[in-house]
Write a structure and sequence with these properties.
Strand order of the largest sheet: 1-2-3-4-5-6-7-8-9
Structural class: mainly beta
Helix content: under 10%
Distance between the termini: 15 Å
Largest sheet: 9 strands, antiparallel
Strand content: over 45%
Oligomer: single chain
């Protein structure tokens, strides 16, 4: 989940214009308007380097992303019926290959008047540089129970239900079902 959340954070930063690459002009971002939405292609080519700083401005890590991210969007996130589908093409982060298609769709308001989304990951796969494969497929519901009406994400809270299945790095198959919702507070580590 952390790998795919990092991917979505990277996409959000690029869409907001806040992502900083060490390579000038890298990644190449292309936007096209289509029908009732738009497509975005983020092309890292053979590698875009991004320096990670701590709060004191000291470089603590370097991330190299390669490959292409394809995004199809319809509507804005807070709009019922909107969706964002992310598909990866030869995409890797620091030599770790990442595959899959992730779709997030706004389903409108639930019975408690909370905005809710379906989040589906199909064909999720991570391959380490030494060939270890980890797979993951998931179908979840995320209900936005607090902070939806404020500009800060720090007060956002979600309740999450769903299922996940796949194979661990040790070749063991697994499946999980969230029976009692997970309550996630963004400001709480």
């Amino acid at each position: 989940d952390m790998v795919f959340e990092d991917l979505m954070n990277e996409i959000d930063a690029i869409e907001a214009g806040t992502m900083k690459s060490t390579n000038e002009g890298c990644p190449v971002v292309t936007r096209d308007v289509v029908d009732t939405g738009w497509t975005i292609t983020i092309d890292y080519g053979d590698g875009c380097e991004q320096l990670i700083y701590n709060r004191y401005g000291v470089v603590i890590d370097t991330i190299v992303r390669k490959g292409i991210i394809h995004i199809e969007r319809k509507g804005r996130c807070a709009q019922a019926g909107s969706f964002r589908t992310v598909t990866l093409e030869d995409y890797s982060v620091n030599g770790i290959q990442i595959e899959g298609t992730r779709t997030v769709e706004n389903k409108g308001l639930d019975e408690n008047q909370h905005m809710w989304f379906t989040i589906e990951l199909q064909g999720g796969k991570i391959t380490t540089p030494d060939g270890i494969e980890i797979t993951r497929n998931s179908q979840r519901e995320r209900h936005w129970v607090a902070g939806a009406n404020t500009p800060s994400i720090l007060d956002d809270e979600y309740k999450i239900w769903g299922t996940v299945d796949g194979m661990t790095a040790f070749g063991e198959e697994y499946s999980c079902t969230i029976i009692d919702s997970l309550h996630v507070k963004i400001a709480c580590r």
